[in-house]
């Protein structure tokens, strides 16, 4: 792997390697000294053209835990606000010797452009591009699902813990809400399919993308029927992305009240789930809109754990992309 741009680019072996490496990274994080010398002398640039809390901080934490030097660049307060292009920004980072660039951008395809235009000699990690992809989010979601649910199956290699070595075959995941604007949904559908899980998207017809028929998943407009009839093992709630809706907050569905009534996860719907089922949300949450406070804070919710797992997954991605040939062999951490 040279770059991490899309979960659709990952083979099953590559995806499982990333998850297994993340499990190794997580094990190092319970040590008294969390820092590893692996990327000493290497520079990671966090290049953020859109706001972020979780992704930016966890990439920074991950890079520092691997002993890399970290440069944080945000479009606000930089020469981007004076009109500087992505190309000239990239050439500046190249001149400063970036070894990896973590990029979040409002334009779908920006990470591909950065990786393939020849402006940089660095690994590019997509931290979210428009409505297109968010591969490390999907990987941390899959990692979290695997930790909780894959160990229930009989597919684990002997002696494996926390699902290490396993794919997600046989698991059912419902992805619920604003699929139209969601790079998290797109990244998850591709990765979960690669890992063998079944996926059902649940959304109002107004928030289902044109072309979803060729995605490797089912589509439902009825959340109650999906929870009660299909019985998913994991329910992933999506944020309603009102900032990406041109018609104003009320235009995406007849009203926010109706959205919550038909597609919100609340205590009544939680009670429909099987005992082992878990609830995920990539954050940030609109409490009271797509998820009630009761559901977000329930014992089924693994939302805070997703954030913690994000550090291990991003350490794994940086390590596999930056530590050279040896990293694929699983050299000592
Ligand atoms: N899940 C996610 O991408 O969150 P941030 O926007 O806070 O990075």
Description of the structure:
InterPro entries: Asp/Orn_carbamoyltranf_P-bd, Asp/Orn_carbamoylTrfase, Asp/Orn_carbamoylTrfase_sf, Asp_carbamoyltransf, Asp_carbamoyltransf_Asp/Orn-bd. Carbamoyl phosphate binds at residues 54-55, 104, 134, 137, 283-284. Pathway: Pyrimidine metabolism; UMP biosynthesis via de novo pathway; (S)-dihydroorotate from bicarbonate: step 2/3. Heterododecamer (2C3:3R2) of six catalytic PyrB chains organized as two trimers (C3), and six regulatory PyrI chains organized as three dimers (R2). Residues 2-146 form the Aspartate/ornithine carbamoyltransferase carbamoyl-P binding domain. The strands form two sheets. This protein has a five-stranded parallel beta sheet with strand order 7-6-5-8-9, sandwiched between helices. The chain has a four-stranded parallel beta sheet with strand order 2-1-3-4, sandwiched between helices. It has twelve helices and nine strands. The chain is globular. The protein has helices at 12-28, 54-65, 86-95, 110-116, 135-149, 183-194, 223-230, 256-263, 267-270, 293-296, 303-322, 325-328; strands at 43-48, 69-74, 100-105, 123-129, 172-176, 198-202, 218-220, 234-237, 278-280. Strand 3 (100-105), helix 4 (110-116) and strand 4 form a beta-alpha-beta unit. The protein folds into two domains: 7-133 and 307-325, Aspartate/ornithine carbamoyltransferase (Rossmann fold); 135-303, Rossmann fold. With 333 residues, the protein is an alpha/beta fold. The model has no long low-confidence stretch (mean pLDDT 92). It binds phosphoric acid mono(formamide)ester (CP). Phosphoric acid mono(formamide)ester binds at residues 52-55, 128, 137, 282-284.
């Amino acid at each position: 792997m040279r770059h991490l741009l899309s979960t659709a680019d990952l083979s099953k072996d590559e995806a499982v390697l990333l998850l297994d490496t993340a499990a190794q990274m997580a094990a190092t994080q319970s040590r008294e000294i969390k820092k590893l010398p692996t990327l000493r002398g290497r520079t990671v640039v966090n290049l953020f053209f859109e706001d972020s809390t979780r992704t930016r901080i966890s990439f920074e934490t991950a890079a520092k835990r691997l002993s890399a030097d970290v440069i944080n660049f945000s479009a606000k307060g930089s020469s981007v606000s004076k009109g500087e292009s992505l190309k000239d920004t990239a050439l500046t980072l190249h001149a400063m010797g970036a070894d990896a660039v973590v990029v979040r951008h409002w334009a779908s395809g920006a990470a591909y452009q950065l990786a393939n235009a020849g402006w940089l000699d660095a690994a590019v990690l997509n931290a979210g591009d428009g409505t297109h992809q968010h591969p490390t989010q999907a990987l941390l979601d899959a990692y979290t699902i695997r930790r909780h649910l894959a160990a229930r199956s009989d597919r684990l290699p002997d002696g494996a813990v926390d699902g290490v070595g396993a794919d997600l075959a046989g698991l059912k995941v419902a992805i619920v809400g604003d699929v139209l604007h969601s790079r998290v949904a797109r990244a998850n559908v591709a990765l979960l399919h690669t890992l063998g899980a079944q996926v059902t998207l649940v959304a109002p017809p107004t928030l289902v993308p044109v072309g979803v028929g060729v995605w490797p998943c089912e589509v439902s407009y009825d959340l109650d029927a999906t929870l009660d009839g299909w019985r998913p093992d994991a329910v992933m709630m999506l944020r309603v992305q009102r900032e990406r809706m041109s018609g104003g907050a009320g235009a995406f569905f007849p009203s926010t009240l109706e959205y919550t009534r038909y597609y919100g996860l609340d205590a009544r719907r939680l009670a429909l789930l099987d005992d082992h089922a878990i609830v995920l949300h990539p954050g940030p949450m609109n409490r009271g809109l797509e998820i009630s406070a009761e559901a977000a804070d329930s014992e089924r919710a693994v939302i805070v754990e997703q954030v913690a797992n994000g550090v291990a997954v991003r350490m794994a991605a940086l390590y596999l992309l930056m530590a050279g040939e040896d990293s694929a062999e699983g050299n000592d951490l």
